[in-house]
Specification:
Layout: H1 3-18, H2 21-39, H3 49-72, H4 76-90, H5 99-113, H6 121-132, H7 138-148
Length: 151
């Protein structure tokens, strides 16, 4: 079994013992999402730590988007609950890239691909996304690439 999934399970047990309801429901949700991913498709397979990170990143993004939707609908209590779950998930994700680090990686990818105009953005994104995996939101990366290519 991979390390990250094992850590999630151990933390779930700790959350049960300490009766931390936010952490408990968040970790249960995360482990359920991982299990669903493992049994999806034609054959059951165990996810690598990298795949588990992708699932956790996706779940954290869902929490951010749900918090924004609840906030827009005037449901501050629900928005706060979603943010709290997002913070729990953030503890398992790699540290986010700073704007300077992202800009440097974008510059490197643009140079690597030889892109000079906006319509070559796809090539830059294809080269860049594996390098930033889990450390920057795709929306943020595409905005940085778009800015670098001058659109």
């Amino acid at each position: 079994m991979n390390e990250l999934k094992e850590r999630l399970r151990a933390d779930l047990t700790d959350a049960m013992r300490s009766r931390d309801q936010v952490r408990l429901r968040t970790l249960r949700m995360a482990l359920t999402a991982i299990t669903n991913e493992e049994v999806a498709g034609s054959a059951v397979h165990e996810l690598s730590d990298e795949d588990v990170l992708k699932v956790l990143t996706r779940e954290a993004k869902k929490r951010r988007e749900a918090a924004e939707a609840f906030e827009a609908a005037g449901r501050a209590d629900q928005a706060e609950a979603e943010r709290a779950e997002g913070e729990v998930l953030a503890g398992y994700l790699p540290a986010q890239l700073s704007d300077e680090e992202l800009a440097a990686m974008v510059a490197e990818a643009v140079e690597e691909t030889g892109a000079t105009e906006q319509r070559q953005m796809g090539d830059v994104m294809k080269a860049l996304m594996p390098k930033v995996a889990g450390r920057a939101d795709g929306k943020r990366v595409s905005a940085a690439v778009r800015e670098r290519l001058g659109a």
